């Protein structure tokens, strides 16, 4: 039995490790990942705004257009403007700092959980010390994923809907934030628990609800990544196999430049029409024909909308051709050929994973104490690994499940960038800092859910021991993995079916393009 002083010392040592991981993650985010997310959010920005600038110095990926509700006055003139998401996009705002802290907290606590599992296997620290810090890290991680990150996301999404100025705008913003957040809390508290879980505690039921939602999300992302990898490395369509020449890219760039010039010209014409209408307002001829200026403006606006749609389609095709040109040049090198073969092997594994999930759905495991069967590829990798690092026969299945989870993580990782680009495009977030903060919060949640799923799978490798009732096993606080296996397979197959149909239909209608 550990004494209070020993427990305090062990908690202090583990807390120092938490702090070090938190600081390392924060430094990495500030220097690298956050800037990448800002660039990713800008690449998915809508192209339908901001054409009043000169077409000669226009750059579609330079920065996002300013939101219509953002005042043109400096943020320093209003001390509350920073709460509405305004200000210079090049400066780090308060929400980017909090998003960085949230991600770092998820990372540090997830790593602490793994370190505590390792210390349990090695016999480091006392059982009470490990269990206390396990509960602390698990509580912080669940709070970050379920409470802190969603609250920030609701605050960011409602930043454009609040009206007024100063304290009044902040108050209305907080009220608007509370509405979707309350709905979210109600929904997450009513997520059905698996039928196999009987009378769970509050912490266990909360974790189980998170894992239910997380399993569905990870399954959907994995299905999206599997289909994307298969379409990327196996070019079935003739248009995808053709070589893009430099002259074709140059012709497309010139055509896109002409469309942008026409668009800027129409925008200036619309501004002049609006100015002339305001000057002639109240005159005799305007009273005799009040619809002349409005009809002219409507015609120009329809032309602008058509040019915007054409500009978006042409820029998407140009980006696709540039990407295909770069890929074809890279594929001619030795490094490119090796990378292509690795990609094809990975795509074949994705196809095999689909077949494996179908088998799991058609022939589910009937035993309640059974766990999911690892796929054949993961088992083969485990056998190869056991040649260099001996693994006992009884641990082969557990190690295969960990290899399978790592491969699933690779599939999910391959789809995250495309998914995040789609999220920013769907939400129409117009500030790069706001979009990057929102994406960072999503990444924090995905990382925490994936690492929790890894720990739940690891429970099968460390079965509970009943020889000593007083012995504390950290994995006893986690739900069993076999409860969530069929849920993941169902979400994965549903995502594969929907994504595959959408990709096939899109290429049939619009031709191949960027993912």
From TrEMBL:
Transmembrane segments: 98-122, 134-158, 170-191, 211-234, 338-359, 403-420, 435-456
Abscisic acid G-protein coupled receptor-like domain span: 331-508
Pfam families according to UniProt: ABA_GPCR, GPHR_N
Boundaries of every Golgi pH regulator conserved domain copy: 203-270
Statement: the UniProt record of this protein carries the keyword Iron: no
InterPro entries: ABA_GPCR_dom, Golgi_pH-regulator_cons_dom, GPHR/GTG
Topology versus the membrane: Multi-pass membrane protein
Record-level GO cellular component terms: membrane
Places the protein is found: Membrane
Keywords, comma-separated and alphabetical: Membrane, Transmembrane, Transmembrane helix
Subcellular location, principal: membrane
Top-level taxon of origin: Eukaryota
Record PANTHER family: G-PROTEIN COUPLED RECEPTOR 89-RELATED, GOLGI PH REGULATOR A-RELATED
Protein name, per record: Golgi pH regulator
Organism: Sphaerobolus stellatus (strain SS14)
């Amino acid at each position: 039995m550990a004494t209070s002083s020993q427990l305090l010392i062990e908690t202090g040592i583990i807390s120092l490790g938490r702090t070090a991981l938190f600081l390392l993650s924060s430094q990495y985010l500030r220097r690298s990942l956050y800037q990448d997310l800002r660039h990713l959010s800008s690449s998915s920005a809508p192209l339908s705004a901001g054409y009043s600038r000169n077409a000669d110095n226009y750059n579609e990926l330079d920065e996002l257009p300013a939101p219509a509700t953002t005042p043109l006055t400096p943020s320093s003139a209003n001390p509350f403007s920073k709460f509405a998401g305004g200000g210079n996009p090049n400066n780090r705002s308060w929400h980017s700092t909090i998003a960085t802290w949230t991600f770092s907290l998820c990372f540090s606590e997830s790593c602490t959980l793994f370190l505590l599992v390792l210390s349990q296997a090695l016999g480091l620290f006392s059982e009470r010390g490990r269990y206390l810090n396990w509960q602390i890290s698990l509580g912080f991680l669940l709070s970050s994923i379920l409470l802190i990150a969603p609250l920030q996301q609701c605050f960011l999404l409602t930043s454009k809907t609040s009206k007024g100025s100063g304290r009044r705008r902040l108050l209305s913003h907080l009220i608007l934030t509370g509405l979707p957040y309350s709905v979210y809390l109600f929904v997450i508290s009513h997520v059905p628990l698996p039928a196999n879980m009987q009378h769970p505690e509050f912490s266990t039921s909360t974790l189980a609800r998170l894992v239910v939602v997380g399993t569905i999300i990870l399954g959907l992302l994995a299905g999206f990544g599997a289909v994307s990898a298969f379409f990327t490395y196996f070019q079935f369509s003739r248009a995808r196999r053709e070589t893009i020449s430099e002259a074709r890219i140059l012709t497309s760039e010139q055509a896109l430049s002409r469309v942008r010039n026409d668009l800027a010209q129409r925008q200036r014409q619309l501004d002049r029409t609006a100015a002339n209408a305001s000057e002639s307002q109240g005159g005799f001829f305007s009273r005799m024909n009040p619809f002349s200026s409005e009809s002219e403006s409507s015609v120009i606006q329809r032309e602008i909308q058509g040019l915007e749609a054409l500009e978006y389609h042409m820029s998407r095709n140009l980006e696709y051709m540039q990407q295909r040109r770069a890929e074809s040049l890279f594929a001619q090198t030795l490094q490119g050929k090796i990378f292509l073969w690795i990609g094809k092997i990975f795509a074949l594994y994705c196809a095999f994973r689909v077949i494996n999930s179908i088998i799991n759905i058609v022939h589910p495991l009937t035993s309640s104490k059974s766990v999911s069967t690892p796929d054949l590829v993961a088992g083969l990798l485990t056998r190869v690994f056991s040649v260099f690092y001996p693994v006992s026969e009884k641990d082969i299945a557990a190690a295969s499940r960990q290899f399978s989870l790592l491969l699933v993580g690779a599939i999910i990782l391959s789809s995250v960038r495309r998914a995040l680009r789609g999220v920013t495009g769907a939400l129409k977030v117009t500030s790069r800092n706001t979009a990057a903060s929102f994406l960072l919060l999503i990444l924090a949640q995905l990382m925490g859910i994936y690492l929790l799923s890894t720990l739940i799978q690891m429970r099968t490798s460390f079965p509970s021991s009943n020889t000593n009732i007083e012995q504390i096993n950290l994995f006893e606080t986690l739900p069993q993995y076999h409860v969530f296996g069929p849920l993941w397979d169902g979400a994965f197959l549903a995502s594969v079916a929907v994504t595959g149909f959408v990709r096939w239909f899109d290429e049939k209608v619009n031709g191949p393009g960027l993912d």
